[in-house]
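Q: My hope is that you can spare some time for a protein that puzzles me. Underneath my words sits a plain record pairing an amino acid chain with its backbone structure tokens. Those tokens are not coordinates but codes from a learned vocabulary of shapes. Thank you; the sequence and its tokens follow:
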Amino acid sequence: MIYRMNRESGKADIIDLDVRQLTNRLKPFAPEKLDLMEYILRAPSTNNRLSDIWPEQSLECNFFANSKNTYKDINPYSRFLVLTENAYQTLRKILEQSGECLKLNVEGVPMVLFNPLVFGNEDPELTVMEYEQGVMVGVKKLIFKKEVENLPIFKSKYTANMCMYCNEEFRNIVKENGFEGICFQEDLDNIF
């Protein structure tokens, strides 16, 4: 079984770090001629590695609004996951198979930003694209090939900027450890 990972209903972002703030904080670590904002914005669809421009110790940021009092073990954040140190240590091996784990210091709380770097193969015969005036605008029906069931966490080339997917093994580990913060949806088509 494959699942789409979503944040729990009614939860806001955990960290206060939009793309402009992230660009400004990573600028000292990036090559001078790199269009850093474009590099970051395109990262989900092009698999740009953020570890190449990430500070060695950790990136400092703040909690978003009142999330300092409400954050969970695994927090969807844009097209990433933000994990507590405990969740990261438990899921470390499985996460490192699927992407890069980047250290965060969120107002003194050590956390990890997970950037997924694995694409699952969609079944082109069964996946149905949505078009408006001849231009592809989304996916009506998303079907992956059977081999994605061996991928712990992955993304689709069609929805990489919006969501991530996981297999039964990853879901079971999260559930068995009682980690909170993400929901596992069987409906892959409704990305919102």
